[in-house]
Amino acid sequence: MSVRIDAMDRKILSELQIDAGRSLDEIARAVGSSKTPVWNRIRKLREAGVIGPPTVVPDAEALGFDATFFVLIRTSEHEAEWQAKFLAALKARPEVQEAHRLAGDIDYILKVRVKNARAYDTFYQALISEVRVYNVTALLSMEEIKSTRALPL
């Protein structure tokens, strides 16, 4: 389903990116509209797949997940069977917050959130026991400077 996004839709999306838990009245007031048209636009955007399901973003550190590792993976395996096994292993691991296939010298980069270095090692050992990789480099994030999923609408 194709949907046209106009200036009002962009305003609504921007407000939802700030805090989707606000009431329709608050969002409508912020974009200069009323509740019903805003609700209809949000519904249209959801039906078109522009907006995914609402979720909660927990504070990882408040929950004891103090370590973020960026894991660079190089592989000499590029067959469909290996890829399927690798992707299944990543999807089965809740520690993997993001996974990207890259162009260049590194094949994949993972963002892995764990409680500490020992938990990362447990993750690493489990991953390499399931799939063969050529080289793994783990980079520990010392400080998160910026993190957002918001798009520059």
UniProtKB/TrEMBL annotation:
Residues 5-66 form the HTH asnC-type domain. GO terms for cellular component: cytosol. Gene3D superfamilies: 3.30.70.920, Winged helix-like DNA-binding domain superfamily/Winged helix DNA-binding domain (1.10.10.10). GO terms for biological process: regulation of DNA-templated transcription; response to amino acid. GO terms for molecular function: sequence-specific DNA binding. The keyword DNA-binding applies. Keywords: DNA-binding, Transcription, Transcription regulation. PANTHER family: DNA-BINDING TRANSCRIPTIONAL ACTIVATOR DECR, LEUCINE-RESPONSIVE REGULATORY PROTEIN. This is Lrp/AsnC family transcriptional regulator. It comes from Histidinibacterium lentulum. The lineage of its organism: Bacteria, Pseudomonadati, Pseudomonadota, Alphaproteobacteria, Rhodobacterales.
